[in-house]
Every structure is written in C-alpha cells, then in structure tokens.
Amino acid sequence: MINDNLLRRSAGRHGWKGLIFLAFLWLAALLWILPVLWMISTSLKPETMVMTLVPQWIPPVVTLENYVRALQKAPIMLWFYNSSVMAVCGTLLVLLVDAMAAYSFARIRFAGSKLLFIITLCTMMVPSQVTLIPLYLLFNRFNLLNTFWVVILPRASAAIGVFMLRQFFLGVPVELEDAVRIDGCSRYGIFWRIILPLARPALAALGIFTFVWSWNDYLWPLITLSSKEMYTLPIGIATLVGYFARDYGMLMAGAIIASIPTLIVFLFFQREFIQGITTSGLKG
Amino acid sequence: MNGAYGRSRRFAWLEKDNVIGYVFLAPFLIFLFLFMILPIFQGLYMSFFDWNALTPPAFVGLGNFQTMFGEVDFWSSLWHTVYFVIISTLPLVGLGLAIALGLNRSFRGKTIARGLFFFPYLLTVSVVATIWRWVLQEHFGLLNYYLGKLGAASLKWLGDPNLAMISIALATLWWTVGFNVVVFLAALQEIPEQLYEAARIDGATPWQLFRHITLPQLQTSLTFVFITQIIASFQVFGQVNVMTGGGPFGSTRTLVQYIYEQGFKYLKMGYASAVAYLLFAIMFVCTALQWKLFSNDNDE
C-alpha cells in the first residue's frame, strides 16, 4: 500500500520526475513477468477453466491435476533425469578440461603455445551449424547417436571456458606459485593445491553458466536423440507441444517442471552467474 | 622461448615445461580437434559433394552452391533470416540499453526489478515458445484479449504469414533482452561518477550527459552487444521450430531451419553443409563490416 506519507517521502528522495520514472519502470518490469504469471495461473486451473474468453488471473479453483497429468502422460521424470545427467556430467567435464588447458595457456611456456591459443580463439568464431552435420556423421560412425555421450562430449570442445579461465589465471600473482615451487612442489601440485582453490569464483561462474546453458540446449539434442526414452526436457516439452497442442494446462505444468533446476541454480548462484555473463561478455 | 630460461637450446623440445604444457593441454586439444577442427574442415569438404548418407558421396564441385542460388526456398529463407535480424536486433539492443539505464539508478527493490527482466533468459527455448503460443493464441490468448479491450481486432499472430515472424521476434525480445541488460549494466557501473559531476557543474542537461559521456563510454559494450546480437539472430532456430515449424506457408523458415530440413529431413547432407558455410560467410562479413564501422567511429 502506498500511503500519502510514503509517497511524499519518496518524492523528496527522487523528485516527482523520478517518481514517474520509477512508476514507469516498475510497470515495465511487471509487464515483463506477466507471461510467466499467466503460465503459473494456467498450470493451476482445472482443464475446463483453461480456455475462457475473459482471462482469469486468479484460478477460481486451484488444482495440481495438470501436473499429475503431465507426469502421467509423458515420461517427464525420465527426461528430468536425462537432462540432469547430461548437464551435470557435461559441466564437470568442461570444468576439468578447460581449467587444465587454461592453466597451460596462462602459465606454462612451451613450443607452439601461442599458435595453439590463436587457433583456439579462432574456433570461437565458427557457428555451430558448420560442424552440425559432420559431428552428427562422426557420432553416427561410432554408433553413439541417441546416447548420453553424444550430448556430453562435444561440449568440452568449446573454447569460451578456456578463454575465461585463462583471463582469470593471468591475474593470479606468479610469486605465489614461485614460492611453492621453491619448496619443491610440482606443476601438478601447484595446479591442484594452489591454482584450482584460488580459481573457485571463476570455476563457479563457468560451471553455473555451463550448467544452465547445457540444461537449455536445444538444436544438438534434437538432432542426436531419437528415442523418447533418451530425450532431454527441452526436447520432450517441444514434442508435447505437437501432441497436446490444445492442452495448455498440461503444457504449462510441464514447462514449469522443466524450468525449476535453472531457476534454483540461479537463485543460489546469482552473483556468479551474472559475473559469468559479464566476464564472458565484455572481454570475449 | 626456451632461451629465457638460459639453458641449453639443443634439447629445447625436451625441456620439462614443454611436456607438462602439452600434458595439461592434451584433453582439451583432443576434444578441440575431434569435435571442432576436424568437423569444420569436413563440413567444407562435404559441401562439394552430393551426399545423402545412403549412397556413396559424389563430387559435384560448386554444384551445391549453384543449386542453392537457384532454389526459391533458399532465397526466401535467407530473406526471412535477414528480416528477423533487422526486426529483432534494434529492439534487443535499444530496449536493452533503455532498461539498463533505468535500472542503473538507485531505488528500493532494484535487485528485484533487475531479476524480473532477467528471469526469462533462464527459461529454455521450448518453454519460451510454449508460453508464447499460449499468450498469442487467437481466441483465448492474453494478447488478443487486451488488444481487444483497446479496440483492436483479433489477430492470428502465428497463423498469419505477415505476423508470424514478428511474433517470433517478440518472443525472442522477451526471452533474451535480459542478457543484454546485464552486459550494459556492468558497463554503466564502470563509468566514473566524477565525469558526470564535472559535467553537471558545467550545466549539462541529462540528454547531454547521455550523449557526451554515457554513449562514448559504452562504445565497447555497445559494439560487443550489437555484433553478438546480430550473430545470434542469424542463427535463430528453436523459437521457429517450436512456435511455427517454419510455417505458415514457409513464412518463418530461416536459414538454420532450412539447413535442418535439408540435412535431416531430406538427408541432403552435402547441400545442407553448403548452406551452413554460406551462413558462416554472411555472419563473418557482417562482423567484419561492423568492426570496421565501429572502429572508424572511434577514430573521430
């Protein structure tokens, strides 16, 4: 409730112009979230009340039947499991592979390092459509289509993570490593005991980013996963749109289930996620 | 390089760091080679072949490219893609900047307001497409209802060839603008407050502050967002695939949708590779042009 007093105080702080501006901003923010509220509202309505000519924002009767129906009519929990395995394994693989490569590029002098780094950077400019068909044929040759491998493995070839982590490692003072090195610590020891713990914020940012991105990936799983039992949630939801085109209550329930993990990850790791966007964004 | 260590150069390749460097790099290099570099060249190679995955590939030279330029569907999907790039990029950059400018002020509940704009970015594309199919539904959709209240006629958002692409752009704007907002916000916060204070003392108007301080200071991030946005828009696929499947009457078929159909529906793998390489070439030229354009601006 906005009472007179609060209004006057706010006006004092922002000025009347500022207040109008704020009202406009909040209106826009509310407008932005309306489709999501409408999705939630639809998912909680009984089937017969979904299609009404006048939209009812507050469901007259709240029910979970859409969720039950979604879980019964489609193997949503199986898709949920598939998505989880692929996103978690993919993320762990990317973190390990990228951290090792980034450390090598940032800290170790070796013949060909510069050239390899330039090649790595160049691959970032190639759109995924170019490698789509050859990759598909490659996995087909090894009989790995329609398995977890086909989705997990190619993720580790993206250079963006190597680039991000390398930037971070370059900022770690060399003296720290030198000191441990004099004490007889090997490169591997330095990497595991000094660099990785120090890089936790950067690893967290990359990890969360990779997880959300993997969970939401669409084109590659669509092409490589052919059986219903292997689908990820995004692919499964897309097929439901085809089968149950008019059952909006159930579709909205399915969509909400599919969105929960990335939302939880975001709520817990907001700062790291935003950091991931800005570091990969501005310096990419 | 090894000379810096002041040791014998004769066995430089045996120097310990050389080995360790490659040991650390090996896993990534293997992935990069197998799943990136090899397919990049293989795709180019394939684009010169007629290859349907069933019969042996036949060399056709530039035949695939010739076929492409003679196909009506290719030209229409190229045009749809360019059209989508045009109608999506400007709002995504412009509105993104406007929202970021608004959110950059300090007010109560700032974090929540930022979250509301960013939230859709966390949703997967098929969820976004599902929501918008519902919102844009002709008879029971939210948008038509409220437009009706304002006196507008009901529109077939996804069923009308003239509106379908605009609908997809609308959903895309809603879905991804939050990403640009975050990038702009980060850049805005880097601008030193003293610049504004000094200008205010000289009596600068808000518009002058924006024109002569904010915009120049945002140059790098604006260039970045603009280029990445155009590249992303050229690659639009998921929204199209779930919302319209390229229809109605092929009016939303974009290049990636075309590649997908030719390669995986009609199994014309060589031809689809050729189209993919053409898409790459277009994106490359666009990026190069923009870099040139923006860096010229910088010199002035």
From TrEMBL, chain A:
Q: Does the keyword Cell membrane apply?
A: yes
Name of the protein this chain belongs to: Carbohydrate ABC transporter membrane protein 2 (CUT1 family)
* InterPro entries from the UniProt entry: MetI-like, MetI-like_sf
Q: Where in the cell is it found?
A: Cell membrane
**Could you tell me the Gene Ontology terms of the biological process aspect for this record?**
transmembrane transport
Q: Which PROSITE patterns match?
A: ABC_TM1
Q: What is the lineage of its organism?
A: Bacteria, Bacillati, Bacillota, Hydrogenispora
Transmembrane portions of the chain: 20-41, 79-103, 115-136, 148-169, 190-215, 248-269
Q: Does the keyword Cell membrane apply?
A: yes
UniProtKB/TrEMBL annotation, chain B:
Question: May I have one GO cellular component term?
Answer: plasma membrane
Where does this protein reside within or beyond the cell? Cell membrane
Main location group: membrane
Look up the domain of life of the source: Bacteria
| Domain ABC transmembrane type-1 stretches | 78-290
Q: How does it sit in the membrane?
A: Multi-pass membrane protein
| GO BP, sorted A to Z | transmembrane transport
Chain segments annotated as transmembrane: 20-41, 82-103, 115-135, 163-188, 274-294
Under the heading Gene3D superfamilies, the entry gives: MetI-like
Sorted keywords for this record are: Cell membrane, Membrane, Sugar transport, Transmembrane, Transmembrane helix, Transport
- A Pfam family of this chain: BPD_transp_1
What does the similarity note say? Belongs to the binding-protein-dependent transport system permease family.
**Name used for this protein in its record:** Multiple sugar transport system permease protein
